[in-house]
Amino acid sequence: MSMNGSNMAKHLKVQAAEKTSYFVVGDVITVKITGDDTQGAYLIVEVVSQPGGGPSFLHTHEPQETFHVLEGVFEIYGQDEQGEKYAIRAQVGDVVHVAGNAPHGFKNVGDVPGRMILTYEPADVMLKFFQEIGLPMKDRHSLPEETDPRDPDTILGILKKYMQVIEMPG
To answer: Do 76 and 106 contact (CB within 8 A), yes or no?
Structure first.
């Protein structure tokens, strides 16, 4: 069965090496599908997180976020009505959805690198965040040898620009 032009426009295949990767405070974020691809509806990224990695501090942002664990073991954090932090353990195949503006965070609690697909709806805010806070990577499989040269106040300023930080990183 052949695909004509109108059908091809309804499908998008992204080659593994086609998109940009960013080093974001210890995690590698690779953009897979952008708002340009989805008329602003959603953003899909892959995150590779080293053991102990991830933004475990509680924060909120407008887009809703869905975590799909592909490799490893993660804790997805939330906050209950009394303000107490809690953890949801997520393993390979598990999916955890976080509503927009709900306090959350995550951490790789395994002893090997973990990998997840994250979906954000709507798309634009989080792509801008990753582009601003992340350091572009030439090879997503090689972690940078140097740490982020920016001072912590600069990084915290970027965090506060795109989200509300409930529990300070550290």
So the answer is: yes
**Domains within the chain, CATH numbers bracketed:** 19-138+148-165 (2.60.120.10)
Amino acid at 63: P
pLDDT tens digits along 98-119: 999 999 999 999 999 999 999 9
Q: Are strands 95-98 and 104-108 parallel, antiparallel or unpaired?
A: unpaired
φ and ψ at 22, to 5 degrees? -130, 140
